[in-house]
Fold this protein.
Amino acid sequence: MQSYEIFIVVSSSIIALLLLASVTLNTLIVDYNKINYLTRKIIEWERSKEKAIKKKNRKLYNKLMRQRTHINNIKTEIEKEKIKGYILSFIVWI
């Protein structure tokens, strides 16, 4: 085997190991169940809001709009979980 072939094999192996480490750590650190649960809550809220608008139910709409801050906090929480994965991948690849 020539030196460039060895270099290619070693480089490919290192990249594969880094990728495996990144995916494994990402799975361990990021709480995907939490992301899915919070996403479902947002979808339910948006559907309820659309129904209130469609039925012109002002009382329900106002109730849902009071929950908007809570929904925005949920969206922020989802982004925090996603950022954990981005930061982890960044650290692994540096």
